[in-house]
Design a protein that fits this description.
mainly alpha; two-stranded antiparallel ribbon; 4 helices; 9% strand
Length: 110
């Protein structure tokens, strides 16, 4: 009683946080620039499984299209491994826009 399940948390993220991340990122994939709509994902930079205290942090998300997220990023950095900011930046080829804010939040807890 009173415990939030992983699925409830994911549903909350999908309904509440993802739209805010998409808006912040101009409804555009930050890897390829796709802004056609309907195919965006709010990707956790520090992965959901290993970084519980960053799961809902707005700086721990970046907008990716489904192609870049699933078929590109997660074909290299698998869902069941620890993913980090460095992994994301290596893959993007540039420094994440909210790097300093995310590092500050990360360093509070880890």
């Amino acid at each position: 009683v009173g415990t939030t399940t992983t699925q409830q948390l994911r549903n909350y993220i999908s309904r509440t946080i993802s739209p805010k991340i998409f808006m912040r990122d101009g409804f555009t994939c930050k890897k390829c620039g796709d802004n056609s709509g309907g195919n965006l994902h709010a990707h956790h930079i520090y992965d959901f499984a290993n970084y519980e205290l960053l799961r809902l942090n707005k700086y721990n998300f970046i907008t990716l299209c489904s192609e870049c997220h699933i078929n590109d990023f997660h074909s290299i950095y698998y869902c069941n491994q620890t993913n980090t900011l460095q992994d994301l930046e290596d893959w993007l080829g540039y420094q994440y826009e909210f790097r300093n804010e995310l590092m500050q939040e990360h360093n509070k807890y880890y």
